[in-house]
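Entry:
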Amino acid sequence: MVAEADLVDSRGARLLDVLLGAAGLADIGSLFPSGAAEWEGASSLDLLARAYVQVREAGFELTNADCVLVGEEPRIAPLRGAMQARLAEALDVEPGLVTVRATTTDGLGFTGRGEGLAAVAVALLRR
């Protein structure tokens, strides 16, 4: 069973990468190297908040973000509102600026076989 925190973390990490890319900043590994002891065990929501500070300092703000979980299970409908709220809270933005959705691959690929989940995100920034 995948916990809500795991789902939010996977989306947080994906959204973090997207925000950094949209702002033309360094990638997640450059800012938070996986081998660095200070980031060991860090929540992706904490990293998302830290990265968004850099995005704001570069002169950008979030217009909207859409995060999609790809997989057969779990169904996220009961968790969607809480996930959106946690991501928006990490970014310190209005909850309506962040959406969380899910889709399946109808049994195709590793996500369809239930071997894992994938997360996809897109974000629009403005100066």
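The longest strand covers residues 61-70.
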